[in-house]
Amino acid sequence: MAGIWLVTGGAGFIGSNLVRAILAKGRPVRVLDNFLTGFRENLAEVLADIEFVEGDIRDLGACRRAAAGAEVVFHQAAVPSVPRSMEDPQTSFDVNLAGLHNMLTAAREAGARRFVFAASSSAYGANEELPKRETMALEPLSPYAAAKAAGELFAAMFHRAFGLPTVSLRYFNVFGPRQDPANAYAGVIAAFASRMLRGERPTIYGDGTQSRDFTYVENVVRANLLAADAPEVHGEVVNIGCGEAVDLNAMVGVLNRILGTALAPVYEPPRAGDVKHSLADIAAARQLLGYRPTVRFEEGLRQTLGWYRWAIETGYGGWAKK
Ligand SMILES: NC(=O)c1ccc[n+]([C@@H]2O[C@H](COP(=O)([O-])OP(=O)(O)OC[C@H]3O[C@@H](n4cnc5c(N)ncnc54)[C@H](O)[C@@H]3O)[C@@H](O)[C@H]2O)c1
Fold it and tell me: Would the CB of 120 count as within 6 Å of ligand 1?
């Protein structure tokens, strides 16, 4: 029997999209999740096709149970929020770094042939140079970003010291279906889309000139699948973005245009730990993984809005009530 493809954090936004893509490849999927920010509902129609391990990555025993027989591990589980890590740095450290270490240990013991780590562009932090290249100095501005940056070092070390074939994918602001807009720390597109679909004004922290390389989730999922099989990436760190920056004021403009609305943002003071601009250089992803973004920003936004409209109408995840 073919080895298991394990997705930690598989009940979350990116993880649940990845699970569906792996199933479509015909691979056996196992998920490890504790539902901290994920939902069983995110896996509803595929639950019968996967193995589900309910457990916490802070528990090495749970990681070992989940990794047994794993051929490939996609480590998505995290407390994935800058503001939340500023409020509770200890939990961020325990889950995002010690939890990663547990999964690396379990994957090594299981003899996995590839470990793909969900790293983050937030690791670049205060370094203002643009576009962001993998070789630049990392200057994390939050416990979350520091844990993700340190996580890359641990992933690379597990390759050099213990021969576990790891690769870290530095995601840039991912958005798309199943991103939870009700979470107080929601991704900005999820929050804006769900508010504006209800005719409510979006809240921008700062003056709205901050920009991001917004990346539709399908691109990130494809990058993960490429990373599972790419031969030359052991111990590497690779940016995964679109290579295009959009500022928040412009993003609200595009949302208004697609929705046929004219909702002006409400401006609030900037949030601690947030970076001003972010834009990926994706040359390494092209070269090492054969990656290129296939769904561009506006097309991704249309698909995302369509999905949130459906989610609100059907009461998916209880979001309509929140
Ligand atoms: N969404 C983005 O823009 C973005 C950008 C950069 C990196 N990332 C990384 O991608 C990964 C997935 O993020 P997401 O946006 O899908 O977030 P998400 O919150 O939807 O998914 C995270 C999942 O991890 C699970 N989880 C949390 N703590 C856990 C624990 N202790 N044990 C087991 N499971 C646990 C949650 O229940 C959830 O299902 C994270 O590692 C995140 O840091 C995301």
Answer: yes
| Look-up of token digits 């394990």 | 6
Among 73, 76, 152, which residue has the most ligand 1 atoms within 8 Å of its CB, making it the best to mutate? 76
In contact, 35 and 100? CB cutoff 8 Å: no
Domains (range + CATH), the chain:
4-174+214-240 (3.40.50.720), 176-212+244-277+295-321 (3.90.25.10)
* Pocket-testing residue among 13, 41, 43, 82, ligand 1, by greatest number of atoms within 8 A of Cβ: 13
Q: Which residues pair with 238 in a beta bridge?
A: 169
| Average pLDDT, integer, range 103-121 | 98
Single pTM value for the model: 0.97
* Ligand 1 close to Cβ of residue 213 (< 6 A): no
For the segment 78-102, the average pLDDT, to the nearest whole number, is: 96
Nearest residue to 69 (alpha-carbon basis) of 39, 125, 109: 109
Peptide bond between residue 131 and the one before it cis (omega within 30 degrees of 0): yes
**Pairwise CA distance, residues 223 & 119, whole Å:** 13
Q: Of 276, 265, 277, 278, whose CA–CA distance to 192 is shortest? A: 265
Q: Are 110 and 68 in contact (CB under 8 A)?
A: yes
Regarding the beta carbon of 36 and ligand 1, being less than 6 Å apart is answered yes
How far is Cα 72 from Cα 7, in angstroms, rounded to an integer? Answer: 9
Round to whole Å and give the CA distance between 82 and 210.
Answer: 16
Give me 255's structure tokens: 């949302």
Instruction: Please identify, by atom number, the ligand 1 atom nearest to the C-alpha of residue 173.
Output: 3
Q: What is the pLDDT of residues 115-153, one digit of tens each?
A: 999 999 999 999 999 999 999 999 999 999 999 999 999
Q: CA 271, 150, 245: angle at the middle one, nearest 5? A: 50
